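User: Hello, can you help with two protein structures?

Assistant: Certainly.
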Amino acid sequence: MKQLSQAASQPVPTYRLIPSRFPPVELYEPVCQPSDWDGVKRVEGMTNPRLREMATGLGLLYPDDRGRVSQNWLVAPFTYPDPEASPFSDGSYGYSLVADTIDGALLEAVRRREAFLSRTEQGPTRLEMRMLKTPLQADLLDEYDAIQLEDWSETHSRVRALRDAGSYGFWLPKRENLGRLAVVLRPTAFGTAVQAEHYAFIWNGKAIEVIYDFSKGETLDPNELRVLAGARAA
């Protein structure tokens, strides 16, 4: 097994999408007057896990990472763990799932948004998303063969052991045509994130049927990404 924690010889560009507004607006603009923003922000500082982590150093980050990452985009996945178990966490710690291709990141975002919207029985709507491009500058375990997605309890114990040992994370096996996904366990694995393209996901009440790329003025059929993910190399 490789060292669990070391710098990568060459940073790898990675991609992840997050919900957005295009054009962006002040967070509190829809719910209160500007004169109230300072007070609302103070209340948020007392209740927001990410802000508490960054202000006090007390929270869910790996101890050596505290105070070393200033970008909210990078810290958020680790300070807002999903309380519902996922393949790589029992809900007590967070991680960041990133792709090494744009299409891979789009497909993963579509899957996650569809799962959420289906469970909330959301009617037809449009979701605005933005791509984050972030260099992965830590060396991850390569296609970590001890991860068994069929048995979540076993996977959770193995991932937690990696996290406790200080590992930056691991790559999942390559998907032909869409590259690889990385499970990143520490925000210090990343360099500075920058915003890339903005998209609109068109949800028809049952599935995301169209992806609209604001920068290109073009649409993409998510089914084409699903076909690419399932295709084998020639």
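That covers the first. Now for the second protein you mentioned:
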Amino acid sequence: MYYRRKLMLGILEEFGGKLNHTNFQKILFLVTRKQSKKSFDFVPYRYGCFSFQANQDLLTLGKYNLINSVTNRKSSNWVLAEGDSNFYAELKKEDQAAIKSVKREIQEFSQKDLVRYTYIHYPFYATKSQIAKNILTTEEMLSVENQKRNIEEHEFFTIGYEGISLETYLNKLIINDIRLLCDVRKNSLSMKYGFSKSQLKNACESLGIKYLHIPELGIESDKRKELHTMSDYNKLFEDYEKTTLKDNSKAIQHLFQLIKDHKRVAITCFEKEVCMCHRGRVLKALTMLPDWDIPYKNL
């Protein structure tokens, strides 16, 4: 079992085997803030800090019959399945201490108190909240508002998701106030959680970021085989410029118009380094347009 899932089970054990869905996310967030290497990353969401990966892991643990999601008229709860396992005892000493510490800090809190506590101490994660104004003072809301990004200047970005979590990826979009994400993969399926088309689209749009797939600017997967050196990549991208980009000049023009309309737009693919990805050649094609005058950045 992945260690991060043992951490979640250990938290449930220490908190009596039952936690409200919202409370669980907040407690997991507070525990991970005390870790030197965080087991989960989080994004600002509708009710504050939220981890898509943690939510997916909880659903997986449910399939393994290790926990149950129990919903009644008042709340939805994660409930530890009955058994002899002691996941808390299998955790690292520092993580056991982190759980104990968080439990002492919040043991007298109501759900509202717990949410408010996370908003006050971590205002960035309250920037997308639908309830922040109802539970924070005017002064406390000012701290949240100061964390929000509202940049009016046009800027274009490229971003790859190699080596980072969905949450870290999304936070890069939020911090740069990106309004539209254009997926330039030919095939938008991914073995990495969160980056297949439907997952990425749903995650982006739940955070107020529009998503658009532009497959005509992608590269066929069979052309990406046998890439071992930078020379191999360069040959692939030179062919890409002579064929795909040349044949899809209208898509480049359309992308340029999207940038003008949405002001802050990013194109995305897998590779971390833009020099190893065809999105660098898409950027090059854009900058060669006669009316191009927009600054750009590789995230």
